[in-house]
Amino acid sequence: MIEEIIIAGFGGQGVLSMGKILAYSGVMENKEVSWMPSYGPEMRGGTANVSVIISDERISSPVINRFDTAIILNQQSMDKFENAVKENGVLIYDPNGITRKPERTDIDIYTIEASEYAAKAGMSKVFNMVVLGGYLKVKPLVQPEYVRKGLEKSLPARHHSMIPENEKAIEAGKGLIQLVSKKA
């Protein structure tokens, strides 16, 4: 098994953190992992993306241009990465801020209204975990106990009190994700 993922959005949406938690979760489950962030000099508002590879075997290169899954959180990322999803792959997106929906017919497309849910639930700090939960529902690559260990490893100790809220957000995301179109 090998899963090559791109997570992309604006800085401040927790894109890099989501990738790091997913990567640490894979490490905790004794999988081979690569985590490669890419972001502009802006702290918030600039574009950011991270590629994550999780595999049962050695990873030959962390550099990838085609992805099994794309998790898209803004229109610029949709424009850039929609066509980089491999045939029969998966594209997951939050419709907030998306002006042009994905048009591919050779991939499965899911939507998750994570930003709307997080705002209504007063959980905006863990919006990214709602998205991660949706992804893990579609592709359960790592077991929940390892996701918790990934949270413990990637969050600073002073934020460990937020782990239950993060776990709640992940569970909420599993219930929010919806299939929009199945590959033809």
Question: Mind sketching the topology for me?
Answer:
Layout (H helix, E strand, L loop, with lengths): L1 E9 L4 H14 L3 E8 L7 E9 L11 E6 L2 H7 L3 E9 L14 E4 L2 H7 L6 H12 L5 H11 L8 H14 L1 E4 L3
Parallel strand pairs: 1-4, 4-5, 5-6
Antiparallel strand pairs: 1-3, 2-3, 6-7
Helix pairs in contact: 1-5, 3-4, 4-6
Mean pLDDT over all positions: 92
Number of domains: 1
The CATH superfamily name is Pyruvate-ferredoxin oxidoreductase, PFOR, domain III
Largest sheet: 7 strands, mixed
Radius of gyration over alpha carbons? Answer: 15 Å
In helices, the fraction of residues equals 25-40%
Strand-pairing-aware structural class: alpha/beta
CATH classification, class level: Alpha Beta
In quaternary terms, these chains amount to single chain
Q: Beta-strand level of the residues, as a percent range? A: 25-35%
| Total beta-strand segments | 7
N-to-C SSE string, H for helix and E for strand: EHEEEHEEHHHHE
Description:
This protein has one domain: Pyruvate-ferredoxin Oxidoreductase, domain 3, CATH 3.40.920. With 184 residues, it is an alpha/beta fold. Helix 1 packs across helix 5 (144-154), helix 3 packs across helix 4 (127-138) and helix 4 crosses helix 6. The chain has helices spanning 15-28, 75-81, 114-120, 127-138, 144-154, 163-176; strands at residues 2-10, 32-39, 47-55, 67-72, 85-93, 108-111, 178-181. The longest helix is centred in the N-terminal third of the chain and has 14 residues, at 15-28. Strands 2-3-1-4-5-6-7 form a seven-stranded mixed β-sheet, with helices on both faces. The chain is 35% helix and 27% strand. The mean pLDDT is 92.
